[in-house]
Structure prediction request, 374 residues.
Amino acid sequence: MRKIQMVDLQGQYVRLSTQIDPAMKQVLHNADFIQGGAVRTLEAALAERYQVKHVIGCANGTDALQLAFMALDLPPGSEVITPAFSYAALTEVLLLLGLKPVFAEVDAATFLMDVAALEGLITEKTRAIAPVHLYGQMVSMEPLLALAKKHNLYVVEDAAQAIGSQYCTPGEHGFAGTMGHIGTTSFFPSKNLGCYGDGGAMFTNDDALAKKLRQLANHGQSVKYQHDVVGLNSRLDTLQAAVLLAKLPHLSDFEKARRAVAARYDAGLQDLQGLSVPQRTIDSSHVFHQYTLQCASRAMRDALKTYLQEQGIPSMIYYPIPLHWQTAYKQVVNLPVSEDLCNRVLSLPICPELDLEQQEYIINNIRNFIQKSQ
Ligand SMILES: Cc1ncc(COP(=O)(O)O)c(C=O)c1O
Prediction:
């Protein structure tokens, strides 16, 4: 059996190298490393694929969030509502920009920001809501957008983990990252569409915001050496765009393979006592960036993680500490669901390259662990 990894990037490269190598070589031959042809081609391909007017590449998913909030130019101290059970990037950029993250609770079953609880967090200082489409499925955008409209708030979607997820209620439709004022994504190597280094992008249907985002990502200039606003050096490398363009035709197959892995985990694990398999939202498709279990307790989660590690099976805790408890972002708020999930979640290996033998081995070992501990 091949060594099991959370994400098998080497296996994917070997499989696609006949397409990736020439794409990268072409950039070396063209020597158009910065803002080269592949960047524009990728932006256009993503815009068409996700039915959004503008896609703007940038250096990484965290910069995409920072650029989004720079473009909105909110007054200092403005409040932005964002989930406490999530990756740190959003909170980090809000604080860097002098904005205040207001932490929202998540739904215990889907891990997604609990939209029903948002209205109670809105104050006269609230200027935006920033949902995170965690693990590969989308926050309930229809009521979120209605609430934002009612209170005249911006919506910035963090779609780093959910590129390709599709919202599909009768009232609203759209791909992750394209339904709010600005959406962002990450091309970090382990993401569903990952490059070979750092990369990110922003999505918007607003022409004025698109112009601003592009300008901000390139030192605040729209004409060379003419700096109209204070910006960043945050461009998507042409080499990375070439890698992404070579992978893009395979993305639907990657998603299919991830869903098949998730379905096999469900079938193999859903009857086990003390474990819950991930619940799907009714609002969107799931692209399974992560397959995340809930264990009955922290002790059980930690013991399962250790046991799997001893059998050569990696697993990850996304995320061990809620954002309001992080030293850098500390806030005294009570978010029992987020706090509890941090104690009990465990993400299993999931990627298109995970083969049947490897998956059977993972499932059997989890079953063994549960049987032994009963
Ligand atoms: C939800 C979320 N937002 C933002 C980011 C930041 O992306 P990057 O690592 O490209 O800066 C990540 C990356 O892990 C993420 O998972």
In short: The domain at 250-372 is CATH 3.90.1150.10 (Aspartate Aminotransferase, domain 1). The pocket of pyridoxal-5'-phosphate is lined by residues 60-62, 87, 89, 132, 158, 160-161, 186, 188, 198, 200 (CB under 6 Å). The CA atoms of residues 211 and 275 lie 48 Å apart.
